[in-house]
Amino acid sequence: PSIKKQNIFILGPTGTGKTELVRTLAKKVDIPLVTIDSTSLTATGYRGNTAAELIVSSVMKASNYNKKVAKYSIVFIDEIDKKAIGT
User: Fold this and answer.
1) What is the β-pairing status of strands 41-42 and 49-50?
2) Are the CB atoms for 41 and 48 separated by under 8 Å?
3) Residue 34: other Cβ atoms inside 10 A
4) DSSP class of residue 38?
């Protein structure tokens, strides 16, 4: 089937199965999944991992450095609500 939308935002209270849903989807369609905790990311210019560096390196590693496989990977950014409110 054709996939028209490439981004999905899943919102819900803690413990409702958002992460498990994404893990199950990745396993079912047999594509790499990268889960990133957004609280570990920093803005460009600060010490730590920038989002782009961490996401690209994690996707490449999860896909065994195969660009064709990496292209269809799922990147799940967890706890992004914590970044929005600054906690």
Assistant:
1) parallel
2) yes
3) 21
4) G
CB atoms within 10 A of CB 30: 8
Query: Three-state SS for 37?
Result: strand
- Residue closest to 58 by CA, chosen among 44, 77, 81: 77
Name every residue whose Cβ is closer than 8 Å to that of residue 38 and which is 6 or more positions away in sequence: 77, 78, 79, 80, 82, 83
Q: What pLDDT is recorded for position 14?
A: 83
| Predicted TM-score of the model (pTM) | 0.71
Q: Which residues of the chain have pLDDT under 70?
A: 1-3, 5, 41-49, 81-87
- Own/partner pairs, 56-64, CB within 8 angstroms, 24+ separation: 58/34, 59/32, 59/34, 62/32, 62/33, 62/34, 63/32
